[in-house]
Amino acid sequence: MKYTLSKEKSEITLKFEATEAEWQDAETRAYRETKGKYRVPGFRQGHAPKHMIESMYGAGVFADDAMDILIQDGYEKFLGEHEDIVPLDRPSASVDSFDGKKFAFSLRFPVTPEVELGKYKGVEVEKAEYTVSDDQVEEELKRAVERSARFEDKDTEAENGDVVNLDYKGTVDGVAFDGGTAEKYSLTLGSHTFIPGFEEQLVGVKKGDEKDVKVRFPDDYHADELKGKEAVFACKINGVSAKKVPAMDDAWAKEVSEFDTLDAYRASIKDNMIKQGESRARTENENNIINAIVDASSADIPEVLIQNYLGDMLRDIEMRLYYQGMKLEDYFRYTGTTEEDFRKERHDDARRGALTRLCLEEIIKRENITATDEEAEKKYDETMPAPADGSEKRKPDERELGYLKNEIVMEKLMNMLVDNAVFTEKKAEGEKPAAKKTAAKKPAAKKTAAGASSKTAAKKTTAKKATSEEKAEEKPAE
Predict the structure, then answer these.
(1) Which of 118, 135, 146, 327 is the most exposed place for a label (fewest CB within 10 A)?
(2) Is the pLDDT of residue 135 over 80?
(3) How far, in Å, are 151, 193, 217, 310 from residue 185 at the CA level?
(4) Is the pLDDT score of 462 beyond 70?
């Protein structure tokens, strides 16, 4: 079967012409594959001759199935002859002509677009750097002290900063509402966890007290049925506890760390903050380089790639929500949105993400950046802990090797881009642009897998017509 190939931007069009002999052969195959579903008097089902079925059901009874056979044959012929072309989606088929003897049809499908890659060596970006001051170290120490504070029960009146353990039941016009009831809930007064006015009315309560808290739900409250409504919460105080912050001294440092003195603990905190700053700066520098490359590049991104990227974004959100004990449908319900809303709102972001993937893949190809099984196995040995029982460490499977090789390729890519970048000194606010440029330093390997786009060919042709991630709890929270 002959065909012609044409390409416009990121879409390929194939035009096929089946000869009379090819059509007859396809009809015969269609008869053999489908004759079992036709009933003809005088014949056992599946044994009626082709001409008898045609005389009873019509001359074109096998035409649709024959077309499907030729479309499938044509597509598989193309895939076999062009292994370098990978369809991104199933082809859309259309009939160009059919006279009962000859059949002409077209197949259209998107493919990975060609990227007009901008400059990627010698990219000039402003250098990100983060320094650590002594004041910042002291602030971190203060936060560490706060985190190690203990809460002790008290019999006196509750103050801001105290934790009140309470049972509450909320009603609107005397009727309880969903999410308005809880038992043994611990609320830190002054934390602004609940709607305005709630916590303030609990200042002064003591263990054993009962108190009605009267509040008004905000006009923008997430539950429509409660917006702007007056509510009464019947509260029973189970207990009050006060925060006891320890003294910042050697004894405290020894208790909360591996160090014997406060000075040693302070030095360790500063060292960790410096490392975090370096890591943050490295990531920011890498992202700035990538953004500069993408800004200078272009490609005709087919819609299927954008939708695939949106699917990846949704799966990422779904995974993070899973670890918070939520489902994706819960997220949409709490935010008052839908998956369709998400896809529309994030469409441009997904297009940018797809273009970024294509740019990085193109650089990897041009620079012939690869990773070997030996490199992946070495990385596995370095990062995988030995079994606790002392047994021999198992070998990585093919999936793990593939992931690690992908990670190594990305590390090599980012090191190459950073090594070849030109960093300008970040100027202070109001300062004139600095003329001095500093050579890029090689960063540590970035430990993220490459976002290579999926390139799985559609082997089966079925003609298609062209055509807050944080949980919002149902409680009197703002």
Answers:
(1) 135
(2) yes
(3) 15, 12, 20, 38
(4) no
Residues 132/98, Cβ–Cβ less than 8 Å = no
Query: Which amino acid type is present at position 352?
Result: R
Structure-token match 């070849």, residue found = 420
| DSSP state at residue 401 | H
The token duo for 321 is 């929500």
Q: Could you tell me which residues are beta bridge partners of residue 181?
A: 169
Query: pTM for the full model?
Result: 0.67
pLDDT digits (tens, 9 = 90+) for 333-367: 888 999 999 999 999 999 999 999 999 999 999 99
Helix-then-strand count for the chain, H and E: 12, 12
Give the length of the chain: 478
Cβ-based neighbours of 426, under 8 Å, separated by 6 or more: 126, 127, 128, 129
| pLDDT surpassing 60 at residue 461 | no
Sign of the alpha-carbon torsion through 248, 254, 257, 262: positive
Tell how far CA 403 is from the center of its chain.
17
- Give the single-character DSSP code of 477: B
Return the pLDDT at 386.
79
Average pLDDT, the chain: 88
Residue-level pLDDT at 466: 36
Strands 150-154 and 124-126: unpaired
* One-character DSSP codes across 25-90: HHHHHHHHHHGGG---TTS-TT-S-HHHHHHHH-TTTTHHHHHHHHHHHHHHHHHHH-TT--BSSP
CB atoms within 10 A of CB 14: 20
In whole angstroms, give the CA distance from residue 23 to residue 26.
5
User: d(Cα 189, Cα 202) in Å, to the nearest integer?
Assistant: 8
Phi-psi map region of 58: left, alpha, beta (phi>0 left; psi -120 to 50 alpha) = left
Measured between its terminal Cα atoms, the distance across the chain in Å is: 68
Residue 452: pLDDT band with limits 50, 70, 90:
very low
Determine contact, residues 458/91, Cβ cutoff 8 Å: yes
